[in-house]
Specification:
The protein is α+β, with helices and mostly antiparallel strands. Helix content is about 35%, strand content about 30%. The longest helix is centred in the first third of the chain and has 17 residues. One of its GO terms (molecular function) is protein serine/threonine kinase activity. This is Anti-sigma regulatory factor (Ser/Thr protein kinase).
């Protein structure tokens, strides 16, 4: 099955829930389990909110030959990097968590500026 859906949201705290709920609705229509995708959407969009200064973000769901992909695009050129947080730090664990949930993830610059951060979801979930 090939599919593609996207939503553009303003970068505000309430948009994380909006995008997460949207992803669940789309994947339900596609007949797929949405839990991992919703966690990934939440994490990636929260990173945009906390680290980029972007006014809006585009969230995409893609069905590819390799599996389902979540992609979040923003206007920042700074690529994310997994951190090594201090033991009691409240920050810096999101990308490590993302790596544990998905088959693989990455980030790439966009031609007109900004970046896309993507995650290939595990088989059986989307």
């Amino acid at each position: 099955m090939q599919g593609r859906a996207e939503i553009v949201v303003p970068v505000r705290a309430e948009s994380v829930k909006t995008a997460r709920d949207w992803a669940g609705d789309v994947l339900e229509k596609w007949g797929q389990d949405a839990y991992v995708a919703q966690v990934v959407v939440s994490e990636l969009l929260t990173n945009v909110l906390r680290h980029t200064g972007s006014a809006s973000a585009t969230v995409r769901l893609l069905q590819t030959d390799r599996g389902a992909v979540v992609e979040v695009c923003d206007s920042s050129d700074v690529l994310p990097a997994a951190g090594s947080p201090e033991l009691l730090s409240e920050d810096g664990r999101g990308l490590a968590m993302l790596g544990a949930l998905v088959k693989e993830w990455g980030a790439q610059p966009l031609g007109g500026g900004g970046k896309a951060v993507w995650a290939l979801l595990p088989d059986g979930s989307a």
